[in-house]
Design brief:
InterPro entries: Solute-binding_3/MltF_N (IPR001638)
Number of strands: 10
CATH architecture of the largest domain: 3-Layer(aba) Sandwich
Number of helices: 14
Organism: Neomoorella thermoacetica
Pfam families: NMT1_2
Structural class: alpha/beta
CATH superfamily of the largest domain: Periplasmic binding protein-like II
Protein name: Putative aliphatic sulfonates-binding protein
Distance between the termini: 72 Å
Strand content: 15-25%
Largest sheet: 5 strands, mixed
Family: Belongs to the bacterial solute-binding protein SsuA/TauA family.
CATH class of the largest domain: Alpha Beta
Strand order of the largest sheet: 2-1-3-10-4
Shape: globular
Length: about 325
């Protein structure tokens, strides 16, 4: 009788262990299944700019997850991002319009799908340069982060409007963005044109004065500067994923609009960007985070016309380039 009781106890123990194991496996399978439902996309974070706040917020606040996406951020430079988007190895990024439009004109398979915000380029003159406005730049040396990049192209448009030949009457010098301040200190350049926060660092240290702000200077202050830039290959093979990541970034942009101080803290604390939370919050306060599709297309067309007038773009009909490069994969986001 005693042996039978021991035998039954052993059987019950084995059954309990087996059931527990099955339960554990079933639980894991459920978690794995939920994870498997998320589609992985690669998004380039190539600048660490303050204005990339919607990207950081979309990751940290779950906007990508809500759209069924598992995002892998790829840290690379602009050239790596450009090549990755063109080949389909990178699915999307946030794109400073003035930086991306020339490669698109030259045949890169990259599409804009929505606008996210206005104004993240500043032009700052050294205190001892004697420069107080764009019209004073004739014969001066301008430091930029890259030849042909967004800040240079925006300033070239402003120079053209001021009657200055930006190709021959201004000297352009390229430095890594975090070295522009040093170049100004050494007297190698008179002016800096760069995305935030680098120009703001110079202003905050009382080393220079603002002469053009894309966020505050007319006629640029209400135009989108940063768009969602998506690989044309992704749109061709999986338009819904392109739409999902566009919606996530648009929703994140709306969140930034309502939570600028928190967005600034998030960017610094999670080491997405440099600067301080307080300084970056002041910059974010200048931008208009009002994402849109149709308004972005209209701004795109207007900017293409400006770039053509300045001799930066060679396209015969601006409308043709816009039709080619703007892909409205999703509708407007209202909430």
């Amino acid at each position: 009788m005693k042996k039978k009781a021991v035998f039954l106890l052993l059987v019950l123990t084995l059954v309990t262990l087996v059931l527990a194991g099955c339960s554990s496996k079933t639980g894991n399978t459920g978690a794995d299944s939920a994870s498997a439902k998320l589609k992985t996309v690669k998004i380039a974070n190539y600048s660490g700019a303050v204005c990339f706040a919607p990207l950081y917020a979309a990751v940290e606040k779950g906007f990508f997850t809500q759209e069924g996406l598992n995002v892998e951020l790829v840290r690379t430079d602009f050239e790596g991002t450009k090549e990755g988007l063109a080949t389909g190895k990178i699915d999307a990024t946030l794109g400073l319009f003035h930086k991306w439009v020339k490669p698109i004109e030259q045949g890169m398979d990259i599409k804009f799908t929505a606008g996210l915000h206005t104004g993240c380029i500043q032009v700052v003159a050294g205190n001892n340069s004697g420069i107080t406005r764009v019209e004073d730049l004739r014969g001066k040396r301008v430091g930029v982060d890259a030849i042909g990049a967004g800040p240079m192209n925006l300033l070239a448009v402003a120079l053209s409007r001021a009657g200055i030949d930006w190709k021959n009457e201004v000297t352009w010098k390229a430095f890594p963005p975090d070295q522009l301040e040093t170049a100004m200190d050494k007297g190698e350049i008179d002016v800096v044109a760069v995305t935030d926060p680098y120009a703001q660092f110079i202003i905050d240290k009382n080393k220079g004065r603002l002469i053009l702000s894309q966020a505050e200077t007319e006629p640029y202050a209400r135009d989108y500067c940063c768009f969602v830039a998506v690989s044309g290959k992704l749109i061709a093979k999986d338009k819904e994923t392109a739409a999902a990541l566009t919606r996530a970034l648009m929703k994140a942009s709306m969140w930034v609009n309502e939570n600028r101080e928190e967005a600034a803290r998030l960017g610094v604390e999670k080491k997405y960007t440099g600067g301080t939370a307080e300084g970056n919050a002041r910059l974010l306060a200048k931008y208009r985070y009002v994402p849109g599709v149709q308004a972005a297309r209209e701004d795109f067309l207007k900017a293409v016309k400006d770039l053509k007038a300045a001799g930066i773009l060679e396209v015969d009909r601006p409308e043709t380039l816009v039709d080619k490069a703007f892909a409205p994969v999703t509708g407007e986001i209202t909430q």
